[in-house]
Amino acid sequence: MSHPSLAGAFTANRDRAHWHDRALWFVREKRDRMASSVPEWEDLRQHASAIKMHTMSQLPHYLEQFEKNAIAAGAQVHWAIDGDEHNRIVHEILQRHGVRKLVKSKSMLTEECQLNPYLEKHGIEVIDTDLGERIVQLRNEHPSHIVLPAIHIKKEEVGECFHQHLGTEKGASDPKYLTEAARQHLRERFCSADAGITGVNFAIAETGGFVVCTNEGNADLGVSLPKIHIACMGIEKLVPRASDLAVFLRLLARSATGQPITTYSSHFHGPRQGCELHIVLVDNGRSEILKSSEFRRSLNCIRCGACMNTCPVFRRSGGHSYESTIPGPIGSILTPLRTPEAHSSLPFACSLCGSCTDVCPVKIDLHHQLLAMRGFLDRKRLIGMSKKVAMKLMSGLLSQTWMYTTAGKAARTALRWLPRFAVYNPLNPWGRQRELPDAPPESFRDLYRKHQAQPSTSVSGSEDSDRSKSQGGHHDNIA
Amino acid sequence: MMGEDRIQDHLTAGTQVLTAGDMSCLMHLEGIIRRKKHDIKVMHLAEIMVAGLTAD
Amino acid sequence: MTTSRDTIFANLRTALPESAPLPDLPPTGPWQTFDDPLARFSEVLESVGGLCVRVPSLEAADQQLNQIPEWQQAVVRVSVVDGVGDSTIDPDAISDPHDLESVDFAVLSGHFGVAENAAIWVTDDTVRHRVLYFLPQRLAMVIPSRQIVHNMHEAYGRLKIGQHAFAGFISGPSKTADIEQSLVIGAHGARALTVFAVDSL
Question: Do B2 and A472 touch (CB under 8 A)?
């Protein structure tokens, strides 16, 4: 399925699409209030971008430094080229310790690698512990947003789901009541888990540690009880120094949910006494993206989701319409880079309004990259034929004066005389929801020629009221 | 839906004349306005300026 | 044999971007400061669902704690701060952190606070089991009222990161807004957080 058809299905329910739009705009407004309360906000964005660019330019160095320090702190470090290898590594660790029950906090990387189905296939129970992720897991869905996984689901639907799976009262939909039910349900899982998996928000090269940010405390509970902690991270998550965290922690939660900081920002260095800490570093296409001067800045992403909350297309079409672990503007760059064939419609789910670029805390030039992505897909011959043919025809038309003039004349005549069904039919997708403009009596070209022939043509000649009147009449029509 | 939402904002705000510098954007919005028969006039910025010249 | 690690590094080294300078981030740079950091800390803490109580001494903190109904009603209590509250179990004598599941209220200590976001820096050397920061139903945290830094740069400026297997910032009680964006305090961790900012510390 392509984005337009899935988005079409989502917007078919206007009330729901509006509800979704407003929910995300609410988050966007909270973000704005937070950003404007920090006077040095723009400097922070600049610093964050510079730190990331610097890190990327010396990524092998910082990865080596991180590995050395992480091992010195007592962690075990693993490397995975792709998602499959990542899943095998995690499974091996779990197998070695006879783990049957696993709790996992939010990690977009494990979603990207499709860890859950892999482990479930091997008989391991995986419980997503972030409330939103637990909801979508129980509903057998994927997150529709990287920070707000269940933003597409109404509380009545959560109530129905919890009634079915957690035995809450039928018809109950109070978020407080439902959250309490999930708390009880997940506490039991935290206490019986054999191992915990977390993602990584930032890894620190100079110390060999990493930071995990949550509001619920689920990551911390998940790894503070069982003896095994596995942290899964993409190789782009590094920052050189601990002091860099100040910049990123100031930006992350403010951009993501409009909070001054997440409730918990936990710094892990080595295992608890008598326990094990494993860090799995995953490439899965990242080193290829780094090679591309056009798209490498997309690796700066800290997964705050601000670009999704502000995107007029995302807000109305819903995260699932992207069919991508990372949806929205940043996902429309990252995903087609990895799987261009399956996701060639994504960079067109964009009006190039640039709002994503404005809010991005690490200054990724998102809308420029989205435009560049269209060229990238075209070079791979993946642009849909209808789009291609239309563009080809248009460029042919515009490059030949006689064709343009003839087509214009034909259109003016046709629009005036053709019966309605001949203009508004399935062959004219533009006219499905819109009226075509009234045809003007004559073309700009004719008008200009006439105008040139007149003796008094000075623009400042406001006394020439005849000219103004005749033009005014014409303009009424083309508007 | 984006265009409709945008027009809804203008209806709420009581817009009488909608203007912009971008022709394709105006064509898009006017197309919807006329289909839905809303009472908003759409004019290009140049038209407003010309109207100013006439008024003199 | 070529390992995945070798392959990743070889791949990374084929086309590294041009080097770019790492910005200097002084702890006292052009960053946001506040006239009264403690007042700001309290204000932000309240906005994230917590409560800050300024007290002259540990004794006064103890008195305040004893007035909290949830503390009075707590069956299993733990305090790691001498003079503030008491413990019904000895958390240091427990070897399996799972045995702390029933803790209703814990009094813990924080090193300093951050005015801009009401975060408190905690480390695992003040508790035997770090899960005490997350598992109890309710928390009180004791911090020195004079130790409130303005912002995160200043915070990291005074920290030596990497000395603790676990350390972190905690700002307010656990929360979620995953159901229709309505904020619910008390997701998986503490349902409430009271901070005692003590002058005599």
Answer: no
Closest residue, chain C, to A269 (C-alpha): C165
Chain mean position to CA A376: 19
Per the CB < 8 Å rule, is B46 touching A475? yes
Which conformational region is residue C172 in: left (phi greater than 0), alpha (psi within -120 to 50 degrees), or beta?
left
Cα–Cα distance measured from residue C193 to residue C107, given in angstroms and rounded to the nearest whole number:
10
- Comparing CB atoms, the residue among B2, B34, B35 nearest residue A312 is B2
| ipTM, 2 dp | 0.97
What is the tens place of the pLDDT at every residue in A387-413?
A: 777 778 888 878 888 888 888 888 888
- Report the side by side order of strands in the sheet with C77-79: C51-55, C192-198, C138-144, C105-109, C77-79
Whole-angstrom Cα distance, residue C174 to residue A312? Answer: 31
What residues of B are in contact with residue A475 (Cβ under 8 Å)? Answer: 43-44, 46-47, 50
Pick from A17, A434, A475: CB nearest B1: A17
Length of chain C: 201
Position A435 scores a pLDDT of: 86
Q: Are A272 and C130 in contact (CB under 8 A)?
A: yes
Give the number of residues written for chain B: 56
Q: Which residues of C touch A85 (CB under 8 A)?
A: 4
Token output for A144: 């529709």
Predicted confidence (pLDDT) per residue in A25-56, tens digit: 999 999 999 999 999 999 999 999 999 999 99
- Global pTM? 0.91
Mean pLDDT, rounded, for A102-125: 97
CA A433 – CA A8 distance, rounded (Å)? 13
| Closest by Cβ to B47, choosing from A312, A465, A475 | A475
Do B and C share at least 3 CB pairs under 8 Å? Answer: no
The band of A463, judged by pLDDT with boundaries at 50, 70 and 90, is very low
CB C117 within 8 A of CB C153: no
For residue range A184-227, what is the model confidence (pLDDT) as tens digits?
A: 999 999 999 999 999 999 999 999 999 999 999 999 999 999 99
Q: Which residues of A touch C172 (CB under 8 A)?
A: 263
Identify the H or E element spanning A447: helix A444-453
Nearest of A334, A247, A338, A267 to residue A54 by alpha carbon: A247
* Residues C196/C53, Cβ–Cβ less than 8 Å: yes
Q: How far apart are CA C62 and CA C43, in angstroms?
A: 22
Contact C25 A129 (CB under 8 A): no
Q: With an 8 Å Cβ cutoff, are C169 and A69 in contact?
A: no
**Chain C residues near residue A243 by CB distance under 8 angstroms:** 25, 27, 153, 156-157
In terms of Cβ atoms closer than 10 Å to its own Cβ (0-12, 13-18, 19+), residue C20 is middle
Q: State chain A's mean pLDDT as an integer.
A: 92
3-state secondary structure string across C118-179: CEEEEEHHHCCCHHHHCCCCEEEEEEECCCEECCHHHHHHCCCCCCCCEEEEECCCCEECCC
Q: For the segment A238-278, what is each residue's pLDDT rounded down to a tens digit?
A: 999 999 999 999 999 999 999 999 999 999 999 999 999 99
Question: Hey, what are A424's tokens?
Answer: 């508004």
Q: Which of C115, C89, C113 is nearest to C103 (CA)?
A: C89
Of B30, B50, B54, the CB nearest to A437: B30
| CA dist., res. A48 & res. C150, Å (int) | 20
Six-digit token string for A10: 């989502």
